[in-house]
Amino acid sequence: MNKFKFAFFIIVIGVGIFSACEKDDICVDDDTPQLIIRFYDADNPTELKVVPGLRVIGVGNGNPVDTFSDRTSTLDSIAIPLKTNDISTQFSFILNSADDDNGAETGTTDQLLFSYETEEIFKSRACGFVVNYDNLTTDFSPATENWIQSIEIVKPSVTIEEEVTAHVKIFH
Question: How would residue 89 be classed by pLDDT, with cut points 50, 70 and 90?
Fold first, then answer.
């Protein structure tokens, strides 16, 4: 009888240990989507056009966006993050960005404000929530001193499913 009690005890302990184990929670799903912007030639709107020395700075934090190479001259498209806890995000888009002898920013700067509605979506315990953006708009009005000529919102929803194609076209 002692052997039976011992075996039963071992089985109960084993079941207890293995039932307490859970599958590892590793997030392999996508994260909150980014706004994809493509740059086009204003004189030939079907042709992509690189932006020389492009720098994008988030207004309010003062730091260049780190989702692409800063001040590069080879990009005709970028992906930038929008604020998840607000209904708008403002950026400074700088053409031919450089530092002068005193370290001050040079180049031609245009300010763009993107407004939107946010929708939190629960993905999983490991990933938590992601934010999708709907009704994307911008209030850009071209002026003679702007390097950006016009903006077209191609897709007003920025979702994980739509993070492969451009949401915004900027003509310069």
Answer: very high
